[in-house]
Amino acid sequence: MKVPTLLTQAIGLALFFGVAVEANAYSRTDACHPHHPFKPLPASHARHKTCHVPSHGNGKDDSANILSTLKRCNNGGKVVFDADKTYTVGKAMDLTFLQHVDLEILGTVQFTNDTDYWQANAFKQIYQNATTFFQLGGTDVNVYGDGTLDGNGQVWYDLYAEDALILRPILVGIIGLQGGTIGPLKLRYSPQWYHFVANSSNVLFEGIDISGYSKSAHTAKNTDGWDLYRSTNIVIQDSVINNGDDCVSFKPNVTDIVVQNLHCNGSHGISVGSLGQYKGEVDIVENVLVYNISMFNASDGARIKVWPGVSSALSTDLQGGGGSGSVKNITYDMMTIDNVDYAIEVTQCYGQSNLTLCNEYPSSLTISDVHFTNIKGTTSGKYDPVVGTIVCSSPDVCSDIYATEIDVTSPSGDNSFTCKNVDDSLLDVNCTTSS
Ligand SMILES: *[C@@H]1O[C@H](CO)[C@@H](O)[C@H](O)[C@H]1NC(C)=O
Ligand SMILES: *[C@@H]1O[C@H](CO)[C@@H](O)[C@H](O)[C@H]1NC(C)=O
Ligand SMILES: *[C@@H]1O[C@H](CO)[C@@H](O)[C@H](O)[C@H]1NC(C)=O
Ligand SMILES: *[C@@H]1O[C@H](CO)[C@@H](O)[C@H](O)[C@H]1NC(C)=O
Ligand SMILES: *[C@@H]1O[C@H](CO)[C@@H](O)[C@H](O)[C@H]1NC(C)=O
Ligand SMILES: *[C@@H]1O[C@H](CO)[C@@H](O)[C@H](O)[C@H]1NC(C)=O
Ligand SMILES: *[C@@H]1O[C@H](CO)[C@@H](O)[C@H](O)[C@H]1NC(C)=O
Ligand SMILES: *[C@@H]1O[C@H](CO)[C@@H](O)[C@H](O)[C@H]1NC(C)=O
Ligand SMILES: *[C@@H]1O[C@H](CO)[C@@H](O)[C@H](O)[C@H]1NC(C)=O
Ligand SMILES: *[C@@H]1O[C@H](CO)[C@@H](O)[C@H](O)[C@H]1NC(C)=O
């Protein structure tokens, strides 16, 4: 997908009219469409010098070149990764010192396949054992250029099949970024999640093109498009995601999020959660607007997944349950689905296959003020005649969950929903199981 670089356009226009490019040269808020962010995003300041990153070529590590160029051009510069070059990164780069700087990536940045090095040295982000190839943070940073970041994932997909406890790096770590635009960019072959965004605020992602399939029998697992954590006022828009896990996922303590105009293919949907994974922790997800999503070949369209009140094991490397918190003011408006197992899935029994056990220990994480509206299309038929499921673990923990203008059928024309422990008078769907 080609997305116009609003940033370049704004600066280009300013130069054309001969005006000095000053603060407010580029408004991130105006770039958000049709919905604006919950709070205005800070405008980007002008850049006044350009530095090109040299590359060794032949697969030799360029991380020192990248670091020194970023340091030289930080505070008001633009750092260019040239179009005809491939930059090899063989060392974990801490880029949390960035201030008022642009990274224009025209060429390709490829991370090495040295799985021993990365397992020992990738940045540990603690949450869910996440590690990242690099961590980018600071203030007012723009990364664009429509070039490619390549995670060299194949070696990781194959290794993970042998040992599910290896730590596979995340391609893009946005850690502690206050004010920034990420995209347009092409992201390829991430070893696991494509983006981990933590401790960040006021960031716009746009024009991100994600793809990367395994060439062996070992599928690329856990390739979420975005995982947001401890972050606020983020916009994700105008992007194409071809992956094999959540298209976008809102993890603990994420507020004021707009996600709009996405094409997701092969994913697990746009997910709140999983939440409540860690006993004794309080997880909050509040004020999320998901608008205008096309969802193809997915397990879910709109999804809220909460671990039960009892510990459970989803897989070797993913266990949890027993945490508390709240999910509040979540809107899914306008989604078209095709070949999706559940159009809507709300569960408080995530990771636990024993339903009896789940009902014995209801989740203490509350879900309220949730709106599913204007969702249409055809499911895969996997759960025929059921096309959606809204199941809370007790009536006390779920309130004000609405479904309106839902026009979803299975290939055979059925349209049943499984509804439990929710007020089905607020659900304008055909609930077949109620209690
Ligand atoms: C890792 O990359 C090197 C250099 O590009 C290459 O020679 C080697 O075959 C790769 N190893 C694997 C397991 O893909
Ligand atoms: C975020 O900030 C908190 C508090 O400063 C810190 O403990 C944590 O390591 C940071 N990073 C992540 C990924 O949570
Ligand atoms: C983190 O890794 C440890 C050791 O590999 C494993 O026991 C644990 O289940 C992992 N935790 C998560 C949340 O993935
Ligand atoms: C999330 O926010 C809640 C409420 O402020 C707090 O108790 C909890 O420690 C936070 N969790 C994380 C992981 O930051
Ligand atoms: C919805 O998103 C698509 C891109 O996926 C875009 O082409 C279309 O204009 C958007 N529609 C609205 C109403 O914003
Ligand atoms: C979805 O991805 C598959 C490859 O797994 C591809 O064949 C198909 O064309 C894609 N469809 C859409 C609608 O993007
Ligand atoms: C709830 O989210 C909507 C956007 O979907 C927003 O307009 C509204 O202000 C939010 N409510 C509160 C109380 O923040
Ligand atoms: C994905 O969806 C598209 C459009 O519905 C379809 O043409 C394609 O065959 C699907 N691909 C897979 C891998 O299911
Ligand atoms: C499910 O949990 C119940 C209640 O703890 C227990 O009696 C039952 O044996 C469990 N079933 C399975 C298949 O583990
Ligand atoms: C419920 O099912 C009937 C029969 O298929 C259909 O006419 C009606 O539109 C459905 N209602 C909703 C809200 O989907």
UniProtKB/TrEMBL annotation:
<dbReference type="InterPro" id="IPR000743">
    <property type="entry name" value="Glyco_hydro_28"/>
</dbReference>
<keyword id="KW-0964">Secreted</keyword>
<keyword id="KW-0732">Signal</keyword>
<comment type="function">
    <text>Specific in hydrolyzing the terminal glycosidic bond of polygalacturonic acid and oligogalacturonates.</text>
</comment>
<keyword id="KW-1015">Disulfide bond</keyword>
<keyword id="KW-0325">Glycoprotein</keyword>
<dbReference type="GO" id="GO:0004650">
    <property type="term" value="F:polygalacturonase activity"/>
</dbReference>
<protein>
    <recommendedName>
        <fullName>galacturonan 1,4-alpha-galacturonidase</fullName>
        <ecNumber>3.2.1.67</ecNumber>
    </recommendedName>
</protein>
<keyword id="KW-0961">Cell wall biogenesis/degradation</keyword>
<dbReference type="InterPro" id="IPR012334">
    <property type="entry name" value="Pectin_lyas_fold"/>
</dbReference>
<keyword id="KW-0326">Glycosidase</keyword>
<dbReference type="InterPro" id="IPR011050">
    <property type="entry name" value="Pectin_lyase_fold/virulence"/>
</dbReference>
<dbReference type="InterPro" id="IPR006626">
    <property type="entry name" value="PbH1"/>
</dbReference>
<feature type="active site">
    <location>
        <position position="268"/>
    </location>
</feature>
<comment type="similarity">
    <text>Belongs to the glycosyl hydrolase 28 family.</text>
</comment>
<feature type="signal peptide">
    <location>
        <begin position="1"/>
        <end position="25"/>
    </location>
</feature>
<dbReference type="GO" id="GO:0045490">
    <property type="term" value="P:pectin catabolic process"/>
</dbReference>
<keyword id="KW-0378">Hydrolase</keyword>
<dbReference type="Pfam" id="PF00295">
    <property type="entry name" value="Glyco_hydro_28"/>
</dbReference>
<dbReference type="GO" id="GO:0005576">
    <property type="term" value="C:extracellular region"/>
</dbReference>
<dbReference type="GO" id="GO:0047911">
    <property type="term" value="F:galacturan 1,4-alpha-galacturonidase activity"/>
</dbReference>
<dbReference type="GO" id="GO:0071555">
    <property type="term" value="P:cell wall organization"/>
</dbReference>
<keyword id="KW-0677">Repeat</keyword>
